[in-house]
Amino acid sequence: MTEPLAPGSVIGILGGGQLGRMLALAGARLGFDIHIFDTAAKGPAARVAARSWAAPWEDDGAVQTFAARCDVLTFEFENIPASALAAAESAAPVRPGRKSLEFTQDRLIEKRFIREAGCSTVDFAEVNSVAGLESAVARLGRPSILKTRRFGYDGKGQAVIREDTDLAVAWASIDEQPAILEAFAPFRRELSIVAARAMDGQMAVYPLAENTHSDGILRVSTAPARVSPETEVRAVEIAHAIGTGLDHTGVFAVELFDVEGELIVNEIAPRVHNTGHWTLDACACSQFEQHMRAVAGWPLGSPQPHSACVMTNLIGEDISPWADIVADETACLHLYGKRDARPGRKMGHINRLSPLLD
Amino acid sequence: MTEPLAPGSVIGILGGGQLGRMLALAGARLGFDIHIFDTAAKGPAARVAARSWAAPWEDDGAVQTFAARCDVLTFEFENIPASALAAAESAAPVRPGRKSLEFTQDRLIEKRFIREAGCSTVDFAEVNSVAGLESAVARLGRPSILKTRRFGYDGKGQAVIREDTDLAVAWASIDEQPAILEAFAPFRRELSIVAARAMDGQMAVYPLAENTHSDGILRVSTAPARVSPETEVRAVEIAHAIGTGLDHTGVFAVELFDVEGELIVNEIAPRVHNTGHWTLDACACSQFEQHMRAVAGWPLGSPQPHSACVMTNLIGEDISPWADIVADETACLHLYGKRDARPGRKMGHINRLSPLLD
User: Is B199 on the interface with A (CB under 8 A)?
Assistant: First the structure.
């Protein structure tokens, strides 16, 4: 085991968007100095950090110089190029480690890992050609969903295969990238579980959240989700299986489909997650603090909420009536300091608290 | 009325210690960019700010240049030199305003204001010489407390007049500064109330906290304090009278003595206050967020707590067993990023939450 980092140590974050910003704020609260590496200068995280660096991911020297100033590194997004990760690892420990990234950067490897960990997924098939797509659709049926194996998020790199979808067009629409086809899950609702794993294997699991998406983007999370005790127990088992299987350090999230009470794993995010933003105001220790604790080698905080919470994302022009939003006394407001409210861009979120029900 | 500041605006803070740091973190959460002016570089607040400036308070040009980059200014401590304040005011609005500073920088003016506002104080007398001290002690008795009118905090600039105290020695011990003598208050306990006042006069008052000091430094605050409904109502009246009387914008704190159920005002702090740190974890809107809302011209958030809280300061060497402190799952930990744990120095604090009692 590594010694825990003393307060005042430097934690470096690869990536400088809103997740990096909220990680930086949580790390500062614990007395750490936060350094940010991002491709753009003065992004959301850099403006709350002790120091920031702007360079392309391809600049291995810059990544290495940044890493050498840090006691430990973490990241706000999982699609860090392999060469940048190697450059970072050459100068400082990166937590979570390579396994968490490699197993979640590729949907095919991820699905196979989930099954090996004893968890359920939808049926899926590897797709490398139109012919492969045709045979996969023949097996999994319509509707089904074609997804690139790598670099997809917020609904990007996906095509729904409906009754009338031309498979050649669908294949072209994802740029003929290596892909998987996923069977349609007749889910009643979308849930997610956010958990943290410490370096000694200790785990802290937050209650399930129930999530609503539109246009592939999360809109609302409600936590704790109203589920049976059996479902909550099963979700905790899933979190333990995945966290342990990845030998993960830090926070991760598991997106789940609730199909007639059975929990089907949709995907894993090896990082803090939008469906865990409710913990900022409803728990004594938020997902961001948990992550910083874990990467610093500290024991985890309590994941018990003191309040129930409805988290609403502010997307693009949602932020325009900001004067009304800030006047809502029931809203715990989080804005990310982004300059332009482009469509689909996450500008902030609101947490609304209420007393916990038994 | 001034228009509310849009998210992304720059709020400048005069002073870069732990109060500035916690204000900066709260302002960032609301989407503001925070600039810090401090006499030392890379202090606690500068390391979480978008930009920071280091120069002596006497450098009016530096203060003015700093202020010109900000949309509004505030401060973390009330003893800002008059010339620096004038330089700042020449370039940007400073909130709270001059009246709040002038009325609280001088204990004699403060005490007179408190009485004019309809609130009680202990008996007091102006002292400008040993002879004046002798006649004041003759009137107010022993024990009593001699305090410099200006620049006292955390027990500094004070001398207790006991039965055997030589008055000439006491007068010398406060460097023969203009002073007041205060009668001893036979208080049962020390309370405080933290409140915020918006630019339109709206007020948000947090519940009373009960405080324990030692060596003149706050150790523990417990909130909400267990008081009668009448006491709570009287405290809210006091907060309204003082906030309105100062025409204050932002957070302020009123330290109170509970003398047989009567609330005696000890002193006013025209800023966020150590006895309000419990609001960081026990309220949806902390005193730091309230202050940033007020100085931005925003409506205030709710001051209602969702939990009860015991706040414990970490002073000097209290921080040495940090590995044990961070392992306490019941502790919400706040560390200020200070490098040296000097005696009496506030290094951080811990909030411990529990369910609210009725």
Answer: no
- Residues in chain A where the model's pLDDT stays below 70: 1, 152-155, 358
Which residues have a Cβ under 8 Å from the Cβ of A125 and sit 6 or more positions away?
Answer: A132, A135, A136, A139, A140, A180, A181
Q: SS3 sequence, B323-340?
A: HHHHCCCCEEEEECCCCC
Say what the pLDDT of residue B28 is: 98
Report, as an integer, the average pLDDT of B16-21.
Answer: 98
The CATH code of domain A189-355 reads 3.30.470.20
What CATH number matches the domain at A123-183, 3.40.50.2000, 3.40.250.10, 3.30.1490.20, 3.30.1660.10?
A: 3.30.1490.20
Residues 6+ apart with CB under 8 A from A328: A350
Cβ within 8 Å of B, A 18-57: 21, 24-25, 28-33, 42, 47-50
How far does the CA of residue A32 sit from the closest CA of chain B (Å)? 7
Q: Do A301 and B329 touch (CB under 8 A)?
A: yes
Prior bond of B343 cis (ω within 30°): no
pLDDT in tens, A13-29: 999 999 999 999 999 99
Which of A48, A284, A329 is closest, CB to CB, to B332? A284
pLDDT in tens, B122-153: 999 999 999 999 999 999 999 999 999 997 66
Interface contact flag, B281 A281, Cβ < 8 Å: no
Q: Which of B348, B352, B311, B349 is nearest to B330 (CA)?
A: B352
**Tokens for A338?**
């982004």
Q: Is A122 helix (H, G, I), strand (E, B) or coil?
A: coil
In this prediction, the answer to ipTM > 0.85 reads yes
CA B142 to chain centre: 28
What residues 221-240 of chain B have any CB closer than 8 A to a CB of chain A?
Answer: none
Calculate what percentage of chain B has a pLDDT beyond 70. Answer: 98
